[in-house]
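Here we describe the complex-level prediction in full. Unlike the single-chain runs in Section 2.1, the two entities below were treated as one system.
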Amino acid sequence: MMWVFVLLPLLGALVAWLIPDNRTRSFVLPVVAVLHLAITVYLLIQTPPPSPDGWIHLDALGKLTLLSNSILFAVCAAYAVGYLNYRRLRPNRILCMALLVCLSAMTLVAISQHLGLLWIALEATTVTMAPLIYFNHNARSIEATWKYLLICSVGIAIALLGLFFLAYSTIVAEQDVTLLLSSLISDASLLHPGWRHAAFIFLLVGFGSKMGLAPLHTWKPDAYGEAPGLVGALLAGGLVNCALLALLRVYQIAAASTEGALFQEVLLVMGLISMAFAAVFMARQSDFKRMLAYSSVEHVGIIAVALGLGKAALFGALLHMLNNALTKGVLFLSSGNIHRAYNSKSTQFVRGALRRTPWSGALFLAAFLAITGSPPFGPFVSEFLIVSSAFVQGNYWTGGLFLLFLAMIFIGMASTVLPVVMGKVPDDIEKTPYTDTMHTVLPPLVLMGVVLMLGIWIPMPLQALITEAAGLLGGGK
Amino acid sequence: MNALADQLLVLCLLLNFAVLGTSRLAFSVRAVALQGVLLGVLPALIHPFSWHLVLIVVSIILAKGALIPALIMRAIRKADIQREFEPFIGYIPSLVLGALFTSLAFIFAARLPLAPAHEGLLFVPASIATLMCGFLVLMGRRKAISQVIGYLLMENGIFIFGLLLADAMPVMVEAGALLDLLVGIFVMGIVINHINREFSTIDTSRLSALREE
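The structure predicted for the assembly as a whole is:
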């Protein structure tokens, strides 16, 4: 069953390869995405038992990642039909295939319980995203692709060395060599401390660079700025969550060993540094897509801080993982529309989006309010949980800095977003044929609805799922 | 057998310096390829015979010794360049830094105990030193191809350590890691080709349109 689940998108990629016509090909995406979402929901309700060798199992953390990725991909796939129709002249065979292969790899990340397998899948997502970032085939996008490819490849290679260290620590401790998550967790305190320590550092740096934790985030603004909107959404919502899941697996092992507290401290500091970086670079950002990249750095920072705090903040961290992915989806898709309408992403030319593209402008504005933590949207709830947990734990410095950075980021982001959506459309802008249509507006609108719902009411099954997942992060104690 | 393995590892370390000290791209690729072949031979020396091991030896030699160098050589031919020009870090400073990193690697390795079966082997310092030298090439050179060579050197460093686990890791994990590496290099080759077409050069310092004002 699980293997079928991973193979389905690959089959879709094969079909996409065989279809000669650009227009017809784009319909493969929503078909596969809907099937994928249906299977995801089915698996969430009827979870199959782990595979006999223990490599494949959908636990609560995997379920959460899978759910968020599947929803996001479905929305992006529906959007892709309209988007690719608008850009009919550009061949999209590679785009469709890479998207589907990436979906397959993201699925494998979510269901694998073997860290080696998880690493392979994560590396596969890295490579398949490269042609997607390069979709526009111009000088700027190739620069972004090169930086992305090089930094993420190096990062993920360092993570591999970390995994080798972890495996070797089992040999030195005279255990059976394994990278199976369950045995690593149960034997965590037996592993050789020196090797284990080195492994955690390498894994944190490796997965951290893929997640975009500062100061390893330098590829993000370029890649997010140059990639098409729907690819940006998948990068910021899908790939970030995959890398985060990998980090959470390491967190599980660390929490079960004696090094949990140290690991948490490092995460807390890296998270705060990320938020500080985002707060500084967000201000006076003249490119609204690059600005979204700094928002992404901010939010992985928030999640890292929450993981560092632990205890009640873990629930907030996991809820924020979902909220951030979905809200980023709305932001990137709507900003992609605005980009198309003005044929520019500089605040110098893009003004009055609420008049030029009322729906996309309104969605961009609403998603901005959501992502900066304004009620009544989802991110408000998760950020509130995290910050209140910081104060309850008596960690006033963290809580205070957290709030300070949030305020700085709100002001910085507003100074870019408000001019874009408000005001009058400049007279001398390039005329483009783009207008808001159902195809390009409905998908982000639905997603915005979900984000709003998560702010008002979290369904019981989801709440139970997140509680269970947070329990897994408690080190199984 | 362990003495032979150590000699091969020393050879690997020397090859790092060959890459650090040269401006000729084709020579660097050959040095990295030779290192890849050595990497393929090493597990045969330290682990008892098994078919699993044969598979690993063959696939590493094939991927790292033949396929990947061929891919990069093709990119070099297409871009029609032979040499690295004006690297950010010169060749002599590169060599000095390489020596420094290599000695640091030995200090780092002395702090981590090896399993009894691997006692006295140079795997850990060789691995870390190669990793650092690769990083040095990656950071210090301008040409995209040189950067890929640096990345390969890093990967070789990681694989050197992985060889200690060669008979313990499931075959699927190793095959997957090699395949990912292969595809990654393939994609990098394509991107280099596009950089060359777009800018008429593969000098990455020309990739500077995207930065904060």
